[in-house]
Amino acid sequence: MKKIVLLIALISLSYFSFAQTKKLKEGVAEFNITYPSLTPEMKQMEGVLPKDMTIQFKNDQSRVEMSTPMGTTVVIGNNIKKDVTVLMDLMGQKIAFNQSQEELSKKEAELKKGGKIPEYTVIDSKETKVIAGYKCKKSVVQYTNDGKKEEMVCYYTEDLPKISSGTDNLALNEIKGFLMEYNISQNGIQMRVVAKSIKSKKVEDSVFLIPNDYKVMTQEEISDIMNGVGKNNNGK
Q1: How many domains does the chain have?
Q2: Closest CA to 152 of 177, 113, 106, 185
Q3: Closest Cα partner for 160 from 175, 146, 171, 149?
Q4: What residues form DSSP beta bridges with 179?
Q5: DSSP 82
Q6: In the chain, at which end, N or C, are there fewer CB atoms within 10 A of the end residue's CB?
């Protein structure tokens, strides 16, 4: 169960802040999430893995939302402040925590120092294809993970706001536009994320705020709760 919670956070953090906007400054993007190669352990829990993702964006703000039978996870980003807010409604517990630009940079430095961020190379391609009505360009991110060479195939459009990745996916920061399709692997779970629709729509400012019924906590307190969820799932 803890792996699934971390997985949701991983996918969400692939979209948390905006760079310079392009043609469409405000709207909603819908994505499908599939799992082409689940491990036997995770195959048994496929029913609780997220299948859809929604991104609401407006100027320099974004809100990424995913739901599972366990609950809903939201990641809110602000490109001016360069911070991130995470909202989690998990099994009746509504909790939130913030990460400032300084905290995110510190975490990135710690991950690099600990060797948890692999070296990577981004290779741009001339290959293109149309996804959800947008012409998309291809980039391939190559890296080495535990001595094994891996790659992420990404398609992006420059006709939508560029959304940069979080600290768990630093290589995706190098992609030059709005990610429309990509594959990624974490903890033995391979995911494929593909945009299915992009709509111009008015987005209320309130969706970028922490609701009053959410309790703001520290990351340490959140970790304690996640550890408890994992223990309960294992029957301990």
Answers
A1: 1
A2: 185
A3: 175
A4: 156
A5: T
A6: C
Residue 5 has pLDDT above 90, yes or no: no
| Residues 140 and 152 sit within 8 Å (Cβ to Cβ) | yes
Q: Alpha-carbon distance 32 to 105, whole Å?
A: 30
Characterize the bridge pairing of strands 148-157 and 178-186.
antiparallel
Instruction: Take residue 132 and report the two structure tokens written for it.
Output: 């959800």
Domain of residue 149, CATH code = 2.50.20.10
Name the nearest CA neighbour of 143 among 123, 164, 114.
Answer: 123
In the block, tokens 């990641």 appear at: 75
**Buried-exposed string 177-194: b where 16+ CB fall within 10 A, e elsewhere:** bbbbbbbbebeebbbebb
CB 179 within 8 A of CB 187: no
- Given a contact cutoff of 8 angstroms between Cβ atoms, the answer to whether 35 and 96 are in contact is no
Q: What is the pLDDT of residues 51-105, one digit of tens each?
A: 999 999 988 888 999 988 888 999 898 877 778 899 999 878 899 988 776 766 6
Give the separation between CA 200 and CA 77, rounded to whole angstroms: 19
Question: Containing domain of residue 218, as a range?
Answer: 2-233
In this structure, the strands spanning 189-200 and 215-216 are unpaired
Strands 178-186 and 71-78: unpaired
In single-letter form, the type of residue at position 9 comes to A
- For 97, the enclosing helix (H) or strand (E) is strand 93-99
Q: Which secondary-structure segment (H or E) carries 193?
A: strand 189-200
